[in-house]
Amino acid sequence: MALTREDVLHVAQLARLSLKPEEVDLFTRQLNDILGYMEKLQEADTAGVPPLAHVAPLANVFRDDAVKTGLDRELSLQNAPGREEGNFVVPRII
Amino acid sequence: MTESLCRLSISRLAPLLASGQVSPVEVTEELLSRIAARDGELNAYITVDAEGARAQARAAEVRLRRGEGTPLTGIPLALKDVLVTQNLRTTCASRILENFLPPYDATVCARLRREGAIFLGKVNMDEFAMGSSTENSAFGPTHNPWQRDYIPGGSSGGSAAAVAADLCIGSLGSDTGGSIRQPASHCGVVGLKPTYGRVSRYGLVAYASSLDQIGPVTKEVRDAALLLKAIAGHDPQDSTSVPAPVPDYLEALGQDLRGLKVGVPREYFGPGLDPEVEAAVKEALQTLADLGAELLEVSLPHTEYAVAAYYVVAVAEASSNLARYDGVKYGYRAEGGNLLEMYANTRTQGFGPEVRRRIMLGTYALSAGYYEAYYQKASQVRTLIHRDFAGVFEKCAVLATPVAPTPAFRLGEKVADPLTMYLSDIFTISANLTGIPGISLPCGFSALGLPIGLQLLGPPFGEATLFRVAHAFEQATDFHQRKPDF
C-alpha cells in the first residue's frame, strides 16, 4: 500500500503540518521506505494473539477524589505566546 | 598537581565531600570552568546554569558541614533537556520549546534536589528524544569526545558525551528505544534503562508514553546504582509508576557470579553485527564465564519483527503526545490568518524534520483504514516479543548482548536515510517494548579507538541483578578507566 503525494499531503493536514513542495517528494519517498519495512509485521503469525498496549503491572489506578490546589493561574500562563486578562489568546475563531 | 576533580565519579567524589577534603563549591567551579573552556568542541550542553549551580553548591556545603549530607549532596550533575526543571529553560532540543520555562520540577529532579545534588545545566539530545545520534537537535549536534567527527549516539548524546568528557560527574537521560544505553555504549560510559514503572515519568516531556523511562548515565556501575536508588519509587503524580519497594541496590555490588545463568540470544549475533563489536562482546561473555557465570544459548525468535513493531508503536504514541504543541498554552507560536493556519505554521516551523516525519508516520498508522494493519498488528507482535522474553527469563537470570550493531558512526553518515538509522536500534528496542531493565557498560574499543558496549538485560524489576553482573564485570576489566583524549 504505497503512499502517494496526495496521501502525504492528507496525512500532513491531519497532523496539522504543512509541507514545502520539495519536502512532499522527500517525505513521500522516506515514508514509503519506512512503511515498506513495516510490512514485515504482516509475516508474523498473530492469530489469536491479544494486543499489548503497555507493560506496567498495574490496572485501575485509583486515587482519593480530594480537593487540592492546582498550578497557579499566573504560572500556568507564564509561557503563553498570547495572553490577556488571565486568559490564553488565540486567533479569532468565529 | 593533583588529578582534576572533574574526572571523579560520584562514588569517588562523595567521600571527599563528606569528609570535607573537597568542597562542593570547589568541584562546581572546576566543572563550570571546564565546560566554559571545552564544551565548544562537543556541544554537550544546551543550557549551563552557572548561577543556579553555584547557589546549590553553597547550600550543599552548609548541609555537608552540618553532617546532614546524603551520598548525592554536593554532586554536580547534568540533566537531559527532556526533564523539566523549575524556572530553568527546558527545550527538548526543539525550537518549539526554545524559551520554555517550566513552572515545576520533574519528580526525578525534585528528588535529586532533596538529596542536595547540584544541577550544572541541561544537556543536548535529539529533538523530543527522537533519534539515535543527537544530530536531530535544533541546537546543533553533539560530538563524540573519543573522535570529534563521530556521533555520540542518541538520543541522550549530550548526557553520554558530558559524562565521558568529564563535563559533569553524572547525568540523567531518558530511554525510549535505547536512548540511554546506545549513547553510553558509543561514549564508553555506563547507562541504565530501568524497568517501566520503576521511575516516575512526571515531568519527563512525553515521546512514547508506554516506552519512555528515565535513568542514569555514569562513569561507573556503582554510581548508576546510587542514582537509581535516589530517583526510583512510586509517585502519585505518575499513575504508571509502580508502588513496589526500592531495594538497596548497593547491596548487590560485590556479589560473585558463581552459578549465575547468563543467556546469550542467538538472534543478536547474526549478520549485520560489526566484527569488532562481535569480538568485544564475545570476549566479555568469556570474562563473565571466567567469573563463574554459566553461559547458555537462548532464542528470542520474534527479534526480526522488533524494529518494525517498535517504530509503529513509538510513532503512534508520539503523534498523539505531540498534538499538544499548538502554539496556544506554551512554546513557539507562528502567525496565521486563522486558528488552523496558526497551528500548522507553528508546528511546521517549530518541529524539525525527524519529529515531523514521526508525527506523520504515527498519524498515518493510526488513521482510519490503517489502524489494524499497523498499530493493532504491532501491538500483537509486542505480545509475542513479551512472551519470548518471559520464556528466556525462566531459564536465565540475565541476557548478555551487544548494545548496537556497530561502534559510533560518522556525523552526517545516516542523516539522509532515516530507515537505516532506525535499524541500528535493533538490540535495544525490545527492552522498551517489554518494559524490562537494561544496562550498557564499556567492554572494548574498535581499532579506531571508539568504545564498544556490553548490554545486560534483566527480568522486570531485576535491576539489582544487572548491577551485580555489571559491577563484577567492571571490577574484572579496566575499560571504564580509559578516558578519551579530551
Characterise this structure:
The complex is a heterodimer of chains A (94) and B (486). With 94 residues, chain A is mainly alpha-helical. Chain A has a domain at 5-43: Histone, subunit A (Orthogonal Bundle), CATH 1.10.20. In chain A, 35% of the residues lie in helices and 4% in strands. Chain A has helices at 5-14, 21-38, 73-77, and strands at 83-84, 87-88. A two-stranded antiparallel ribbon of chain A has the order 1-2. The two termini of chain A are 39 Å apart. The mean pLDDT of chain A is 93. With 486 residues, chain B is α/β, with parallel strands linked by helices. Chain B has a domain at 5-256: Amidase signature (AS) domain (Amidase signature (AS) enzymes, Alpha-Beta Complex), CATH 3.90.1300. Helices cover 38% and strands 13% of the residues of chain B. Chain B has an eleven-stranded mixed beta sheet, with helices on both faces. The longest helix of chain B is centred in the last third of the chain and has 21 residues, at 372-392. Chain B is globular, with a radius of gyration of 21 Å. The model of chain B has no long low-confidence stretch (mean pLDDT 97). Chains A and B meet through helix 1 and helix 2 of A and helix 9, helix 10, helix 11, helix 12 and helix 13 of B.
Describe the SSE topology:
The complex is a heterodimer of chains A (94) and B (486).
Chain A: H1 5-14, H2 21-38, H3 73-77, E1 83-84, E2 87-88
Antiparallel strand pairs in A: 1-2
Chain B: H1 10-18, H2 24-42, E1 45-48, H3 50-65, E2 76-80, H4 107-115, E3 118-123, H5 157-164, E4 170-175, H6 181-187, E5 190-193, E6 213-218, H7 221-231, E7 261-265, H8 275-290, E8 294-298, H9 306-321, H10 339-350, H11 353-366, H12 372-392, E9 398-402, H13 418-423, H14 429-434, E10 438-445, E11 451-457, H15 463-476
Parallel strand pairs in B: 2-3, 2-4, 7-8, 7-9
Antiparallel strand pairs in B: 1-3, 4-6, 5-6, 5-10, 9-11, 10-11
